[in-house]
Amino acid sequence: MKTRIIQNQPDDDGTPPPARAAAPPDHHSSARRSVMSFVRNHPVISFFVLAYALTWATLPFGSFFAPGALLAALVIAFLNDGLAGLRAIGARLIRWRVRWVWYVVAIAVPLLIHFVTIGINQAMGAPSPNSGQFAPWYGLALVIGMNMVDPLGGQFSEEPSFRGFAQAKLQTTRTPLAATALLAVAITGWHLPLFLISSYGLQPYEAVTTVAVTFWYGWLFNHAAGSVLITLIAHATEGSINTSDLWPAGPDLTRETWLYVVVWSAFAITLLIGSRRFWSRPAPISATSSAPTPERVS
Is 64 a domain residue? Predict the structure, then answer.
């Protein structure tokens, strides 16, 4: 007996099913990935873009928001390296175990610059400054200490971000000279509203001082084993004695302001010439980024 095998035939007519509609592209995710890729490849550029934006955002309200630099550094450090990036900034800020001589240098150099400036101006006829705000004798130390921990002050905002983050990143792929030169341009640009808006009381030519002290802080940061604490002491000392009570008025003030620019510039040039080998060789490991994403050379 023969068995007939009946094969099941498909119910359709052979026409392929309609293609499933493709999901629309997620432009937001693509843009986010592009931004994150740029931030990871160029952390220092990203930091300065954000620092400028946050700091200058309050200019229409008559304020220069200095903490914007620190906030920008923390954000970019976290986006690049997570908690390790934040810990790296914090570790530099509390790095106190350095040679004692750098504590002395951090305080002595700003004082010397001011004494030389004031002395030259007095020799040219300016009156003696009023130092009453620093009485009693430990008054200067108190003022420096308060400036160091002021969360809204420039010193506390700038040193962990400009030295502790930006310089440490840049020096992983550049010499100290190249890294500091780039920082000098970017940091001076960040301060630009202070020099161009008359209500802040600074003159445009004082931007030269910012360039000069950037080289000084960069030199000190590298010699002091990448300690932001040391540069913070230096910056706070400079800011504490750079007060209106120590400056004369009228033509004497104009002359002393110019002298201050000249003296700082002369000091920076001396550092550049006298430490040529330091500026041209790789930065010490202690002053380079401990995080895994250095600024990429384009």
Answer: no
Residues 99/84, Cβ–Cβ less than 8 Å: no
The predicted-structure confidence for 145-162, as pLDDT tens digits, reads as follows: 999 999 888 999 999 999
Residue 173 resides in a domain: yes
Q: How far apart are CA 289 and CA 282, in angstroms?
A: 13
- C-alpha distance across the termini of the chain, in Å: 84
Summarize the chain as % helix, strand, coil (round to 5).
70, 0, 30
Smallest CA-to-CA distance from 167 within 156, 155, 178, 157 is with: 178
The verdict on residue 5 lying in a domain is: no
Whether 41 is in a domain gets the answer: no
Domain tally for the chain? 1
Structural domain for 148, as ranges: 96-287
Q: How many CA atoms lie within 13 A of 235 on its CB side?
A: 28
Whether residue 294 is predicted with pLDDT greater than 80 in this model: the reply is: no
**pTM across the whole model:** 0.85
